[in-house]
Amino acid sequence: MTGYAVVFEKTETGWSAYAPDLPGLGVAGETFEETEQLMREGIEFHIEGLRADGEPVPEPTTRVSEIVPA
Known about the structure:
- By secondary structure, the chain is an alpha+beta fold.
- The chain has 1 helix and 3 strands; from the N terminus they run E-E-E-H.
- Strand 1 (about 5-10) and strand 2 form a beta hairpin.
- The model has no long low-confidence stretch (mean pLDDT about 95).
């Protein structure tokens, strides 16, 4: 399986993150590293929950590119 795109956003108190292809999954942490780890764990937990409930696991479809202005 291909990995899921994750969006990280700096906040006033740390970082937040969400995966566009996994609605309802979002995390927040004090550091980027903490938030990244929480997201890794969250993705696994979210997928386990979907499977346990008999729900389909969404395929990753979101693509991310960094665009640098000219």
